[in-house]
Amino acid sequence: MPAPRFHKLTISDVRRETDDAVSLAFAVPARLRQAYGFLPGQYLTLRATIGGEDLRRSYSICAGLDDGELRVAVKRVAGGAFSNFVHDRLKPGDEIEVMTPAGQFTLPPSDRPRVIVAVACGSGITPVMSHLTTVLARAPESQLVLLYGNRTGRDIIFAEALAGLKDRYLGRFSLTHVLSREMQDLPVLHGRLDRARIELLLHGVPAVDHALICGPAGMMDEAAMAFAAMGLPPERIHREYFTPGEGGRVAQASPRPATPQAEPAAIAEVIIDGRHHEVPLPEGMSVIDAALAQGIELPFSCKGGMCCSCRAKLVSGKAKMAVNYSLQPWEIAAGFILTCQLRPLTPRLVLDYDAV
């Protein structure tokens, strides 16, 4: 599997979803269609120079596999450099650098009917939407349940599309809106999606096969506890972490080259696209930043442990991660590591970005 790469794509459509959210569709040329094939739940990283800085933001793909398009949603955030750039500057016909799809917020394939429950808040609906449309279209015997939290009805992203899915798939798709700042007919539908409310709303749902959770960290913790109490094992509780700053993953500018120390803390041999590079690792500097200081660009997006763009296999040597919000237990057991969070424990490491 090649490491994720940026390509310039043309924006084919900009659609207003709510007062503060738009979605962008990209035209993918035939030569790149295989590279931009995606799984439901994955994301794209967009890159642009804004105010003289090279900035990257990652946004989840909201299209289903049968929608015939590549589309992400971007929510405007006060003071958000990238989200405001998207809302105020981008239009159909513009080009922007887009990294090939990445991310592990995916479901294992299955030929049997499943019950899938999703809990989302705000822009957390974006990757869930891709799952919903795909499973409903391709697994006619599976059932899906969505609990979707927002402040008011005006804040519901994809409101019409969700209503359309509910009407089209009667008996297979259950949709419940929970609003924190707007009263509804039933008291249980007014408030925040905490553990007690989630358990109450899911009472009577058949045995759950998989849970999808995306939204603020506090809500995800509450939802995970609710599913654990229902007997769902951890490997079937899937979380996607968004940072609050941009409505997507954490934002980072590419760092300016740094001067390596005379005696680096370790040496990393980096394998990417079949090429080998030796990267000195100064004390306290990540592999990503140390490589950039040497003029070697490695794949990254959030640099906060919340995405998997910088995932590589630790072929030799030992290291630990400062934080990890995205690698699954099986990936860690197989030797994969987030290089933005890597802390070397041996003088030499070998990291393979080409490993599947």
Topology (elements, then pairings):
Blueprint: E1 6-18, E2 21-27, E3 43-50, E4 53-60, E5 70-75, H1 81-89, E6 95-99, E7 115-121, H2 125-138, E8 143-150, H3 159-168, E9 173-179, H4 195-201, E10 210-215, H5 217-229, E11 237-241, E12 252-253, E13 266-272, E14 275-281, H6 287-293, E15 311-316, E16 319-321, H7 329-333, E17 336-338, E18 342-344, E19 348-352
Parallel strand pairs: 7-8, 7-10, 8-9, 10-11, 13-19
Antiparallel strand pairs: 1-2, 1-6, 2-5, 3-4, 3-6, 4-12, 13-14, 15-17, 15-19, 16-18
Offer a concise description of the structure:
Helix content is 18%, strand content 33%. The chain has 356 residues and is an alpha/beta fold.
Low-confidence stretches: 244-261
Measure the end-to-end span.
Answer: 5 Å
Assigned CATH architecture of the largest domain: 3-Layer(aba) Sandwich
Backbone CA Rg: 21 Å
β-sheet strand percentage = 25-35%
Q: Give the % helix.
A: 10-25%
* CATH class value of the largest domain: Alpha Beta
**Spatial strand sequence of the major β-sheet:** 5-2-1-6-3-4-12
Helix/sheet category? alpha/beta
Average pLDDT, to the nearest integer?
A: 91
Strand tally: 19
Account of the 3D structure:
This protein is an alpha/beta fold and 356 residues long. It has 3 domains: 6-99, Translation factors (Elongation Factor Tu (Ef-tu), domain 3, Beta Barrel); 115-241, Nucleotide-binding domain of ferredoxin-NADP reductase (FNR) module (Rossmann fold), CATH 3.40.50; 254-352, Roll (Ubiquitin-like (UB roll)). The protein has 7 helices and 19 strands. The strands form 4 sheets. Strands 5-2-1-6-3-4-12 form a 7-stranded antiparallel sheet, covered by helices on one side. A hairpin with a 2-residue loop joins strand 3 and strand 4. Mean pLDDT is 91; it is low at 244-261.
